[in-house]
Amino acid sequence: MTTETTEITETTEITGAARPPVAAATPPAPGGVPAARRPAPGRRTRRPATLLSRASRRSVAVVAFLALWEVVPLVGLVDPTWLPPFSRVLQSWVELAASGQLTEHVVVSLQRSLTGFLLAIAVAVPLGLLIAWYRPVADVLDPLLEIFRNTAALALLPVFTLILGIGETSKIALILFACVWPILLNTIGGVRGVDPLLIKSARSVGLPSVRLFQKVILPAALPTIFTGVRLAGAVSILMLIAAEMVGAKSGLGYLINNTQFNFQIPEMYAGIVTVSVIGVAFNYGLVRVERRLSRWRNG
Questions:
Q1: Cβ atoms of 181 and 123 closer than 8 Å
Q2: Is the pLDDT of residue 161 over 90?
Q3: Rounded to the nearest 10 degrees, what angle do helices 101-133 and 252-261 cross at?
Q4: How far apart are CA 201 and CA 215, in angstroms?
Q5: Is the pLDDT of residue 230 over 70?
Q6: For residues 118 and 172, is the Cβ–Cβ distance under 8 A?
């Protein structure tokens, strides 16, 4: 046994081979996680600091605008009767919210806007996929779509009112008509803009048409489709206010119009500010949905 050990030792010395070093065990952290896997100190604190810095940069222009709004009427550059300071508008907004009037109008407007907007998505996305994918359907429908696409939605407001009345149906129909076109056109453009090599590759492996739409066409066209959806979201708010200013008894459009007629100028601006906040929140929500549905692209 001693002779074999001596021979192994001599062989190691002659060849210069050495045994691999044994890695030192990393002492576990108090929580049971090895120190090598623990996040670097300050990593958790950098993210809130980054978010705070980004939020500060993005809010500079808004804060400057609100400060200008506050100062201009106070120094007499404009008549405070027609443009009250922002602090007075904010006070009126708080009073409307505390009385419950603002909440009531907001709920009614959101119901109308979301109903027309969701119906537009349900109609425009399948129709856009059909027109973009099947050339005979596009040849038949394109002339009619061009006529309606170039017709202003507000020009059809009297038509919707005469046919459907001044109730909820005419307002939702107007929002539906106005929101269909951004979604439809962007869906058609997104599908037709898919890389042909992707389609050929999918077909070469024998992918069925349904799976081709699910795995190739829709993911590739989704960013363009969501651009149209976001545009339609803004259009739904604009058309809603216009529709509520004609023959409505509730909603933010009615609130703005009614306060103007009653010479309640701060309350009128409070309604306008509420519309802007809802539009920004609506767009932010759609951006979040788009990021969740297209996480592969964000990565």
A1: no
A2: no
A3: 130
A4: 12
A5: yes
A6: no
